[in-house]
Write a structure and sequence with these properties.
With about 280 residues, the protein is of the alpha+beta class. It is built from six helices and 18 strands. The relative contact order is 0.19.
């Protein structure tokens, strides 16, 4: 038995930057333990597994994502990479919309020239008063925190400046003890080219620092929209590899808005294929 595996650098327009993801397209489902084993073998922050759905929307696939350690419910760069493979390898025509059935509901991807736009559910944050010494200790940032907020899965912490954010040397063992997947650390951007910058630390799911995290921007986008008064923004994740993300908030409280229009974040990025091969099983 053999399976084709493709490695894609997501949220970048050049190889060896952005966030690498594995993508495995199969004709039918494969066992979860095999997907986990392949993800561990690839040793990337996430590997996506997808197969076409019959009797459903045209261009629809079931999609699951695995880190080397666990399955996750939502992954931005893994979805971007999967959509890129569907178009670049001829599974879908360039003008077709990719639809994904996932643990976070239906997601979609649309090709817009050399960018791919993802339609994701928002994960808004709220200010929390439960700021433990362990949380402060885990980031090793002293008194440079402006606000501490929290979503259902992550802390989102705004720091005083991009300089402070770049200098962070987190204690990953301490972060792993927190009752969340990880910490999104963010700050206003120094450059006029970007609206905000961020880093993401998630050792609890096997990723000390994620190079570029699309799903984190489902929290970052509404957070910065409220602070900056803008619904469309350009962000940079300032990990060692780095990456650029365009975000647009499509949040609506209108009773006339459809479910697809309510509480959505549109996340756009570019992607390049860097590796293709056969897994011999």
């Amino acid at each position: 038995m053999s399976l084709t595996i493709t490695q894609v650098d997501a949220f970048t327009d050049r190889p060896f930057s952005g966030n690498p993801a594995g993508v495995c397209v199969t004709e039918k489902p494969i066992p979860a333990d095999l997907m986990q084993a392949i993800a561990a073998e690839m040793n990337l922050s996430e590997t996506g597994f997808l197969y076409p759905l019959e009797r459903s929307i045209e261009g629809s696939y079931n999609l699951r994502w695995f880190t080397p350690a666990v399955e996750v419910d939502l992954c931005g760069h893994g979805t971007l990479a999967s959509a890129h493979v569907l178009w670049s390898e001829g599974y879908l025509k360039a003008d077709a919309i990719a639809h994904f059935n996932t643990k976070s509901g239906w997601l979609s991807a649309t090709k817009k020239e050399d960018w791919i736009e993802l339609n994701f559910p928002a994960q808004p944050v709220t200010v929390t008063s439960h700021v433990t010494p362990q949380l402060i200790k885990s980031l090793c940032c002293g008194g440079n925190i402006r606000t501490v907020t929290k979503s259902d899965v992550n802390y989102l912490i705004e720091l005083q400046s991009e300089k402070v954010l770049k200098a962070l040397e987190p204690d990953f063992d301490e972060i792993k003890k927190l009752p969340v997947h990880g910490i999104i650390a963010t700050a206003p951007a120094d450059s006029e080219e970007y609206d905000f910058v961020s880093r993401y630390f998630a050792p609890a799911v096997g990723i000390n620092e994620d190079p570029v995290t699309g799903s984190a921007h489902t929290s970052l986008a509404p957070y910065w929209q409220e602070k900056l008064g803008k619904s469309e923004m350009i962000a940079q994740q300032i990990s060692k590899r780095g990456g650029t993300i365009r975000v647009r908030c499509a949040l609506s409280d209108s009773n006339t808005a459809s479910d697809a229009e309510k509480n959505r974040i549109l996340i756009s990025g570019q992607a390049v294929t860097t590796l293709k091969g056969e897994l011999l099983l």
